[in-house]
Records
---
Amino acid sequence: MSSRAGVLLVVAGCRIGFDPIAVDIDAPSVTCPSSYTVMLGSSSSSYRVSSEDKLLTAHHAACTSDAPSGTHLVFIDDVMEQADLYAVLRTVPRVNGDRFYVGVVQPPGEADLASAWVSFAGDPVAPDLWRRDEPNDLDLIEDGGEQLAVVDVSFAESGQLVDVSGNASYGAICECDGLLVDPAVVADLP
Ligand SMILES: [Ca+2]
Ligand SMILES: [Ca+2]
């Protein structure tokens, strides 16, 4: 009985030795500003929600200047992160409406409503993040009228994305994850 206890102790010792190494490799440390207080179960990022209604370009500048690198308007990776964000956004104060800008853009000159949408890092936007019948460029004709996107929490069923023109001031969600904005993607924001 005492020898079995000894084996278990050795095994336990090995596990304690390996775990910190695995954490260092898989999750490079990112120091986030103290204002990034929102954490989600589906993501290792931290977030800052702004209820202050501003144009997207003003939110973009504020988010990216929060830290030397790795803060930006949120890149929503999947429906789980989107659902968790939606739950948070439903609880925060809102001044002018129910919309929050995210870091998503459709480049100018696209022929189709849903084509070429990317995050500000240049990654494709998952099609299932859009609300039903969106993106619609307002009138279902792709003519460059709506090239930016918001999460609209007025829809009870989801927080799915809606494409918008960028002419109106809304809140926004900033994300801290150590990822950088692609300057080419944001060079020509509407
Ligand atoms: Ca469009
Ligand atoms: Ca739209």
---
Amino acid sequence: MKLRNISRISAYAFGLALVAAPVSAAEFGMWDADRDAGLNNSEFRTGFEKAGVFNEWDADSNAALTESEFETGLGDNATAFNTRFGEDAFNEWDVNNDTRLTDSEFYDGVYASYDENNNNIIEEPEFGDVGDDMGDGGLWDV
Ligand SMILES: [Ca+2]
Ligand SMILES: [Ca+2]
Ligand SMILES: [Ca+2]
Ligand SMILES: [Ca+2]
């Protein structure tokens, strides 16, 4: 009886270990193409584009996101998104104020938001949030 309980507990612990294993879709080292321990805008964009968020959200495939496409894309993640990027991210990222986000406006906006110390490089600690948001069930899990 006692033995059986122990084996059940270790099976449970083993299951937890599997669940707790990192499921991040994003690896800093793989994104940092020139290995200078920071991600510049183009390294970030190359890595981030693989998630396919912009194209997925761009429902009519006209290479621009309207606010409605943006909100539909966010769906249930709107609250988490607003916590991370602020409630007015769409308008802040729309640099030319034409009420549409091009892919560059979108990627630049996301990039600048993760670059918390505003030095135009995403360092590994800043990248932690990117990894979280790109993992299963994260903001960018499309
Ligand atoms: Ca780099
Ligand atoms: Ca569109
Ligand atoms: Ca725009
Ligand atoms: Ca930075």
